[in-house]
Structures are given as C-alpha cells and as structure tokens.
Design brief:
18% strand; alpha/beta; eight-stranded mixed β-sheet
Length: 539
C-alpha cells in the first residue's frame, strides 16, 4: 500500500478558519454533553443538582458510575447517542445511557436508566434509544447488559411509547433465542411493563432492600383488587430470590450487583466469530489527528480533499487505491484501521455514472473477500441535467444503491460534511442499516441544501402562478422563501440529526480513529461474511 501524500498547510488561513469553526461547534456539543452527564435532565442547573443530591442521599450511584464499575479497569466506553432528544420536548439524552464497553474481555452493549431524570421513566427518546441499543447487540452478537432503575412509562407520553415500546420485550426474547446473552441488574424500581425486562432476561441480579419488581405497585393493587400490599412482599428483591424465583442472584449492594454482573459475563465462554485484526501491531497514522479540525470545511458547500481525512485515520496513512483514474469524485480503496482490514468509499464531490459503477464494483469485491466497508460521506447527491439523464445516471445510480442494499459485510458510515439526496442512500445512510453511523459537528443532512430547496420552491410557485395567468411577485414571495430556507437549515444540522437518533453520536474529528476502532471490534464479534446475491442490475 502507498502512503497518502498530505498537502495540508496548517498555516493557511482556510485551515485556521475551519479549525476555529470546528472548535466552536465542539464547544457547544461539549456543553450539551456536560449537561447530560450532570444528570437531572430538566435543563435547570439548580433543579438538576437537587435530583442528583436526592439520589446520592439514598446511597445510590449515577448511571455512568455504575457503568464504570462494570467495565474492565482502564477500558474505554463508546457512548452512543448521548444527545438523543435534542430539539424535542424529551429530556436531553433521553434519561438513558447506552454504549459499548468491555466486560471481562468481552465487548458488550450496556444500557442504563438514569434515575435522576424523571425517576428513570421511559419517554419516546429513551424507547427509541433502547431499541437502537438492542439492534446493535443483535447484528453484532454482543451480550446486552441492562442496568435497570426505572419508574416505568412517562405517563403523559404513554400514547407515543406504548406501541413501539412493546418491541423491547420481543427483542429481549429474540436476542436470547439467537444465543446472545441478556443480563439485567436491578438497582431500584422496575414496574409494570418494566418488570418484563428482568422477566425476559437470561440472567437477573436484584439488589437487596432496593430492587422492586412488580407488574402492579401497591396503589394499582389497591385499585384493582382492593388489597393493601406491602411493597417488599409484593416485589422486593428478597421475595423474588426466595419465593418467586425471578432473581437468579441477590446482591448486597450496587458494587456487589456489578461484581456479579461481571462474573456472569466471565462464565459465558463467548468467542468472537469474526476474523479480527489482520495486523498485530498496527502502525499509527503518519499525520497528526489534530489537523483534522482544519481539514473539513465549515461551510459544506466548500469542497475539501477526503484523502486528507483518510490519511489521518488509517494505519500508516496507507491506502491501496482502486481505480484512482476513473470516477475520480469517489475515492475507493483498501486499508487497515487499528489492524482491521477495511474497504473505503469516500466522496470527493458529486456522484456521476462513472463513480456509481466504480462504487458498485468495489462493494462487490469487498463482499467477495469478506471485508467490512467504511463509507465517508461528503456528498451533494447524484448529478442531474439532460446530458446525465440521457447518459443513464438513474440506472447507474441504481447499481450503486443495489450493491449497498444487498451487501452483507458490516458497513460503518462516517459523516464529515454534506449528506444530501440519494447520495445519502448510495453511501449507506441510516436507512441502509450500517452497523454504526457517526457524524462530525459540521455535518448537514437533507434532501438538498437549503438554498437549492428554497430555489425549487420559488420556481414551482412561479410556474403555478403563471400557469394560472397571473404575474408572480418575487418580492412578496421572498419572506416565505427565507422562512422555508431557515427551517430547512435548522433541520439539517448534526445536532438535529443526532437528537432524532439518525446517527449514533456526534464525535470530535480527533477521536475518529478510536471510535471506528471500537466499532470495528464490535462488528468482529459476529461473522464477517459477504454475499454475491444482488437485485437485477439494470445495464
């Protein structure tokens, strides 16, 4: 493989401007992260501090402290969707922590309620976030560990969560049926539907004098059958350990429950089914990751060289480029990332027919050799216009989407700029089931850019008006166009996307190699196997 020759000038004005803009966006994201980590979920610092103090006063740990004790000492935790719920009326973060961490040497998906946020009650965002965590566990064959303390459904939002929330119980049983271990540690309340989380898990640990698991709590029992029920006799940990048999293990306290959870993972005898690293001691990139801050354009309309990104995340900055002289706005090639072999498709501009065909061929080669694929998106879409329509851009673009849709090797998608139109689909956007999607803060996603959409809106309005025999007033239409463009712009940001779990998190560009390495480790827990079955390629 040849080392990519970098041409980045860190002293250039454009580099400094991009860096400053990226650092500004990261500062905003770091501030939001700090709010989530602090707990409480209300956005009012004083109120949130009281919620945390109340939990502390009961001798309890925060969710990330529980996760820290569960993980192997010194091992990283890849938190997923930490800013889910941004821009909605749900608590930022959804009152739940999800991510991937190593327990007794085994990569696991970990899900933890945050009892400082509405008592750990489940709202629409937490339901969606929990379902996404289960999907990650399923496709990557990772044990699922649930750290449970929840007041149940967020009742004012029951209409939004009742139907989709039922899938969480189905998914638990399907994980178990697929031989993927499910482990639940209960530290507090687990009521109503939440009682089925331990009820449908392979292993259940309840904390003595803290865990309360029942389908109906004392108030509901009183209303339903007029019984005055004692909380401990109804659903206490001791009762479930000695009488009902729901508890497999009775823990003395939180650290003991987490120790037992670690011991359970230790006896699972899990074996990774993927081939794993091909290189034992991978070489670091030849260029400084710090330079990534100034490489990506702050304005996604301004192009930048995607090989400069690749050079700072792959081993030794080496890329064996495939078809470098053909379809040049799509970079394709093979590399290693932290020792894992990968194929890369990365945008260097709009997709033409040549790029679509080149990408489809490259994906088939990765499939043939069981190589995971990294898609690096900075794409405004497929080329339009009479010349390109007559040249077959539709059928050629369909070849790329066909190849992406039917590819079975793991896909990782990294958003480093624009992701517009069908370009998002052809580069394995969220709808195409990549194993993971991560975004840089400058990322924008929409049908097309706000200015283009605003222009299309005005052209359509003009044609409709003139077809009715009237005169189009551009000045009068301008406020409507500006409002529409502003709406599109606000709904195209990385924060808007991550708030709706369209990605698995916004990451600092400097952390890209580490994040992708952890994701690749996760995907290699399952078999890495390509298929040669595709839909009909329209020639």
């Amino acid at each position: 493989m040849a080392r990519i020759a970098s041409r980045v000038d860190v002293r250039a004005t454009v580099h400094a401007e991009n860096r400053a803009a990226m650092l500004g966006m990261l500062a905003e994201i770091d501030g939001l992260h700090a709010r989530v980590v602090a707990g409480g979920g209300s956005g009012d610092p004083a109120k949130d501090a009281r919620a945390v103090a109340k939990l502390r006063g009961r001798g309890k740990l925060l969710p990330r402290e529980r996760i820290g004790l569960l993980l192997d000492r010194g091992s990283p935790f890849l938190e997923l969707s930490p800013l889910a719920g941004w821009g909605t009326d749900d608590p930022l973060g959804g009152g739940m922590v999800t991510g991937i961490g190593r327990v007794r040497g085994v990569d696991c998906v970990i899900s933890a309620n945050d009892p400082t946020v509405k008592g750990g009650a489940q709202g629409p965002t937490s339901v969606a976030k929990g379902l996404r965590a289960m999907e990650i566990a399923r496709v990557n064959r990772l044990p699922l560990i649930s750290l449970t303390e929840s007041a149940g459904a967020d009742l004012p939002k029951q209409a939004e969560i009742f139907v989709p929330g039922g899938a969480s119980f189905k998914n638990l049983t399907r994980l178990s049926a697929a031989g993927i271990p499910t482990i639940t540690l209960v530290f507090g309340s687990s009521t109503a539907g939440g009682a089925y989380v331990p009820g449908m898990s392979d292993y259940v640990v309840l904390q003595r004098d803290a865990a309360k698991v029942y389908l109906g709590g004392p108030p509901l029992v009183k209303m339903a059958i007029d019984e005055d029920a004692d909380e401990e006799e109804l659903g206490g940990a001791e009762m479930h350990a000695r009488v009902s048999g729901l508890a497999d293990y009775l823990a003395a306290d939180e650290p003991d429950a987490l120790r037992i959870g670690r011991d359970i993972v230790g006896h699972l005898n899990r074996r990774r089914l993927g081939p794993g690293r091909a290189v034992g001691s991978p070489a670091a990139p030849a260029y400084d990751a710090e330079e990534l801050l100034g490489i990506a354009s702050a304005d996604v309309r301004v192009p930048f060289e995607v090989r400069e990104v690749i050079a700072r995340i792959v081993d030794g900055s080496e890329l064996e480029e495939f078809k470098p002289l053909y379809g040049t706005t799509l970079v394709t090639g093979w590399a290693h990332l932290d020792g894992y072999p990968i194929g890369i498709l990365a945008n260097n501009g709009i997709l033409f027919s040549e790029e679509a065909e080149k990408g489809a061929q490259f994906i088939q080669l990765c499939e043939r050799h069981d190589i995971p694929i990294l898609f690096i998106q900075n794409i405004t879409g497929f080329m339009v216009g009479t010349r390109y329509e007559q040249g077959g851009i539709i059928k050629d673009g369909a070849k790329l989407i066909n190849a992406v849709s039917n590819s079975t090797v793991p896909h990782l998608t990294l958003m480093v700029g624009a992701s517009y139109g069908a370009g998002n689909y052809g580069m394995s956007g969220r709808a195409y089931d990549p194993r993971f999607v991560f975004s840089w803060p400058n990322h924008r996603i929409a049908v097309m850019g706000s200015k283009q959409l605003g222009g299309v809106l005005e052209i359509v309005a003009r044609q409709r008006t003139e077809a009715a025999g009237q005169s189009f007033d551009a000045a009068a239409f301008a406020p409507m166009r500006e409002a529409f463009e502003s709406q599109v712009e606000s709904q195209s940001t990385a924060l808007y996307a991550t708030g709706r779990i369209w990605d698995d998190g916004i990451i600092d560009p400097r952390d890209t190699r580490t994040v992708l390495s952890l994701a690749l480790s996760a995907v290699h827990s399952a078999p890495v196997h390509g298929e040669s079955s595709y839909g009909v390629f329209r020639m």
